[in-house]
User: Which sequence fits this backbone?
C-alpha cells in the first residue's frame, strides 16, 4: 500500500506523489521525476531538510548536523531518510521550477451553474480522469476563461474526495469569468485549469479552529469543512462569515448542514450593510473576542479581501492575543492577480 505525499513548493505549487511504506520520500519523488533538493542522500548534509505539515513518518537515520533533535521535534524532516506511516504534507524548500516540475493541467466539462444571488454564482465541473486531480482542502487552481486567453484563480468549495469540483464567483462588472458565466456559459462547455496551488490549506488539527471568511472567501473554508465532515471529530471549529450586503450571503444552508454533520462545528455570520436584516450587522471583528480565540490556543484560517485580513490581524493584536497559528489568504475581487482573484 502506498501513501500519498503532497510536496508543497515555495512558489505555491503542490505536487502529489505515491510513496510506499518502505520507500523514502526522496526515492518516490525521483520516481515521479520531481527533483526535490538533495545532496548526500545519506542523512548527513541537511540539504533536503523540509517541514512536515501533517502526517506521521519514520524519520530514518541521520546525524545531528543534518537535523537537530529540536528541529525534528518542531516537525522538520529529511526526505532522503524518512518513510511515511500515513499520508503526508511536506513543505519543500525549493520552487517547483528548481525541482523541474510544474503545476498539473486538467480538463473538465462544465456540469452546473448556480446563481446563488445577484452578486454570487457557483459553478461545478466534471473533471476528466478525476482520480488524477489531488488537492488539499483550501487550495486553488487557475481556471482558463473559455473564449479568452485569460485565467482566474478560484479555490475549490468542494472537498478533495468529492467527485465534482465546485467554485464560487463574486460577479464583477467587466470581470472575465463574471462575463463568461453571466453571458456565454453553457452546461457542457469544455474548460481547463492548472494547479493545485497555495499554502492556505487545512493542517493537522491539534487544537480548536477559528475559520474566518469574507465574501466568496467562504469557498476554501467550505472545502475544509467537507474534509472535517469525512474525518473523525477532534477539536471544535467555529466559523465567522462576513459579507457586505444580504445579497452576498450564500451557502447558509450548507453551513447549517455541516453544523449537523460535524460534531463541535458552530458558525455565525454578519453583514456590513446597515440596512441588512441580519442578526449581526457589522464586520467579523465585532464577533471575535478572547473567548472566540480560546485565549490564543487556536488555529485561525482566514480567507478574505486584503482590508479584511489586515483588520482582523489588527483586531487580534489589539486584544493582546497571539493565535498558535494564523493561516490566511488574501484575494482581490477584480484583478487577475498572482493570488486568488475571485
Ligand atoms: Fe543530505 Fe538528505 S540529502 S541529508
Assistant:
Amino acid at each position: 500500500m502506498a501513501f500519498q505525499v503532497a510536496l508543497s513548493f515555495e512558489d505555491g505549487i503542490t505536487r502529489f506523489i505515491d510513496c510506499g511504506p518502505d520507500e523514502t520520500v526522496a526515492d518516490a519523488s525521483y520516481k515521479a521525476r520531481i527533483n526535490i533538493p538533495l545532496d548526500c542522500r545519506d542523512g548527513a548534509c541537511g540539504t533536503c531538510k523540509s517541514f512536515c505539515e501533517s502526517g506521521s513518518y519514520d524519520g530514518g537515520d541521520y546525524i545531528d548536523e543534518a537535523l537537530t533533535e529540536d528541529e525534528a521535534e518542531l516537525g522538520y524532516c529529511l526526505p532522503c531518510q524518512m518513510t511515511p506511516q500515513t499520508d503526508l504534507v511536506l513543505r519543500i524548500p525549493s520552487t517547483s521550477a528548481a525541482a523541474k516540475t510544474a503545476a498539473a493541467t486538467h480538463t473538465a466539462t462544465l456540469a452546473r451553474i448556480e446563481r446563488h444571488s445577484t452578486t454570487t454564482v457557483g459553478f461545478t465541473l466534471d473533471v476528466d480522469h478525476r482520480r488524477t486531480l489531488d488537492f488539499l482542502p483550501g487550495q486553488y487552481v487557475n481556471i482558463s476563461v473559455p473564449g479568452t486567453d485569460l485565467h482566474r484563480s478560484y479555490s475549490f468549495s468542494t472537498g478533495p474526495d468529492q467527485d465534482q469540483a465546485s467554485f464560487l464567483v463574486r460577479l464583477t462588472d467587466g470581470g472575465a469569468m463574471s462575463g463568461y458565466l453571466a453571458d456565454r456559459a453553457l452546461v457542457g462547455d469544455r474548460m481547463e485549469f492548472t494547479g493545485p496551488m497555495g499554502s492556505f490549506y487545512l493542517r493537522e488539527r491539534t487544537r480548536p479552529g477559528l475559520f474566518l471568511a469574507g465574501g466568496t472567501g467562504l469557498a476554501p473554508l467550505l472545502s475544509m469543512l467537507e474534509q472535517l465532515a469525512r474525518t473523525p471529530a477532534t477539536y471544535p471549529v467555529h466559523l465567522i462569515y462576513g459579507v457586505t450586503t444580504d445579497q452576498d450571503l450564500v451557502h447558509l444552508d450548507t453551513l447549517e448542514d455541516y453544523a449537523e454533520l460535524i460534531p463541535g462545528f458552530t458558525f455565525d455570520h454578519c453583514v456590513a450593510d446597515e440596512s441588512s436584516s441580519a442578526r449581526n450587522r457589522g464586520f467579523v471583528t465585532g464577533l471575535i473576542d478572547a473567548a472566540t480565540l480560546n485565549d490564543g490556543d487556536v488555529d485561525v484560517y482566514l480567507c478574505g479581501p486584503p482590508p479584511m485580513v489586515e483588520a482582523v490581524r489588527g483586531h487580534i493584536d489589539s486584544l493582546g492575543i497571539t493565535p498558535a497559528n494564523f493561516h490566511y489568504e488574501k484575494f482581490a475581487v477584480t484583478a487577475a492577480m498572482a493570488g486568488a482573484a475571485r
Notes: The pocket of FE2/S2 (inorganic) cluster is lined by residues 38-41, 43-48, 66, 78, 80 (CB under 6 Å). The chain is about 15% helix and 30% strand. The domain at 104-197 is CATH 2.40.30.10 (Elongation Factor Tu (Ef-tu); domain 3). Confidence is low (pLDDT under 50) at residues 334-342.
